Amino acid sequence: MKQIIRNFIIVLKRFTTSSILSILGLAIAFAALFVIMLQTYYDLSYDRKFKKADNIFLASAYSADRGWYKINPEGVQHIVTQFPEVKNFCRVKRDPYFEHSFDVEDPVNGSKRELKEELAYISPSFIDMFTPEIIAGDVHQTFISEENVLLTESAAKKFFGKEDPLGKFFFFHGQTSPLTVVAVCKDFPENCSLKNGIYLAHLLENDLNVYMLTFYIEMNPDDKNKVTNKIRTAGQDEENSMYENLKLIALPDVHLTFPVEGQISRSTTLSLLAVGILLMIIAYINFINFSVAIAPARLKSFNIRRIHGEHPLFLKFSIAMETVFISLLAFLLSLLFIYYSNNGVVKEFLQADLSLANNSGLLLAFAGASLIAGFLIGMYPAFYSTHFKPVMALSGSFAVSPGAKTLKNVLIVIQFTAAIFLLITAGFIKIQHDYMQNNTGNWVDKGKKENVILLKDAIFKINGNDVKPFENELRKNPAILDITYSSALTGDDMPVMDGVLDDDPINYIVWIVEQNFFRFFDVEIIEGRDFMEGDEDKIIFNRTFLEKNSLDFTNDLLEKEMGIWGFGALIRARTVGIAKDFILHAVRFCALRSSKN
């Protein structure tokens, strides 16, 4: 082994440039592939750590014009209780767009602290289906009272520190009814649909906030198609397209299928993995080409060693081990790249945990695989460099065999093909990234976008729901030209809501906005009028909504009453205008100026 290491050091000194290029190329490929593997594993293992993951299905619906959308679980629940194949079902209600505020008493000085935390409402069967690991208290007491709560471990530490949380209480921000902690469970995995925070019991009966509700069914995976068909058949009498379009999505598939739950698509995940594999192919082909290129300069030394009695197999093994050492150096260098990736801009594009300490097992497996791959790849340069006759090598002249030429050409073709596919894939990923980064589209002028400051959750944070005092203070600053509000951000994947137009079912995506919203963003009103001061329960649609639904503004919409479910009541609103397309969800977008916002 000392001889092998000494020969490797000589190679590094003699062929410094090619060695550095090989090590850098492999290090970058190793780091990229490892990071991509972490993200791929994160996505493909999403929701798979629950004991009953394969037996839990999300009840959703899909249609060509609406895409994926959530359904009102009340009707489906009524139907599935009739089927023996359905073992259990539960409902979860969570607003995915903001955290709730709570008042917690400081254990040191007794003052109240305002903390923000995730909040979800659950039905009793949630415990049996998702089997959270209870570490303190009696979880079943959660469902005795709507003021009893189940906390995850991180939320308990956030609220009460090292103190025993059982029996402690806290409040919704600004309210006086206490919420009492009756149980604590271990944190859920990061890559799952359930979020760590506060879980409250709620019967959820007749809850109209459909886009916040998720309905899960527990059954044998083999019964999926049977139950789906039964639900559709049983729902035909309801004259509701929800049943016709109903889909049951296996829990592990939700993240890559249903856009409200997961923002990553399966094609994106596989594209990322393809990029990592292509990088490794290119890096190893580069290494083989470097090894073959320097082979003529090393032939004489190889054959002198053979003449001095070195066994041919040991010589081949020694050359192959050089690749292993280069792979080892490249792997160690890649650790630095990965470490800085976890603390740099790369982290912003990934959801997976990139820390080396938390991925030690996968890191060791990756290291072993890279060393084995390095040895196998190194076998070709080893056999290629030692197959020449000693006399030819010592004379300083040799000819490349037709087989070697063919392999060299094949490697070059593979390398360029892989590079082309890499560029194409990277290009599509870049397009998707730019689309996500600039998801205000072209409806907001570039100069306007650069001068808009977002205060996220301000409407929930400041003085309850009354932001006027805060707005009045801001307007005193001459640098602030205008202020507006909306219920979502321009990049939010807002749910499709059900509604009615003169008692006919219709659906759309709804934002609640301030009356100056369109003027603030310079959005043109092409028919009708803009919102005015004092408007309540008025709607403005975008142009594509009319075209997609074959509607006429004057005859079908103007002053006709529309109903929108989803805000705790059926809001009756009237259309006053049509705006130029102004958001990604152009097919079914409307803005609502409501007295209930």
- By secondary-structure content and strand pairing, the structural class works out as alpha+beta
How many strands appear in the DSSP assignment? Answer: 20
Number of helices: 19
Helix content: 40-55%
Low-confidence stretches: 459-464, 584-589
Radius of gyration equals: 31 Å
Please tell me the overall pLDDT: 76
Share of residues in strands: 15-25%
Shape: elongated
| Largest beta-sheet details | 13 strands, mixed
Give the terminus-to-terminus CA distance: 75 Å
Description:
With 597 residues, the chain is an alpha+beta fold. 43% of the residues lie in helices and 19% in strands. It has helices at residues 2-14, 16-44, 73-80, 126-130, 153-160, 224-234, 241-244, 251-254, 266-307, 312-342, 360-386, 390-395, 402-437, 446-449, 458-461, 468-475, 517-520, 543-548, 553-557; strands spanning 56-63, 67-69, 86-93, 100-105, 112-117, 119-122, 134-137, 148-152, 169-172, 178-185, 198-201, 213-219, 246-250, 497-501, 504-512, 525-528, 538-542, 561-564, 571-579, 589-593. A hairpin with a 5-residue loop joins strand 9 and strand 10 (178-185). The strands form two sheets. Strands 1, 2, 3, 4, 5, 6, 7, 8, 9, 10, 11, 12 and 13 form a 13-stranded mixed β-sheet that branches. It has a six-stranded mixed barrel with strand order 14-15-20-17-19-18. Residues 459-464 and 584-589 have low confidence and may be disordered. Helix 9 crosses helix 11. It contains 19 helices and 20 strands. The longest helix has 42 residues, at 266-307.
How would you summarize what this structure contains?
The protein has 597 residues and is α+β, with helices and mostly antiparallel strands. Helices cover 43% and strands 19% of the residues.
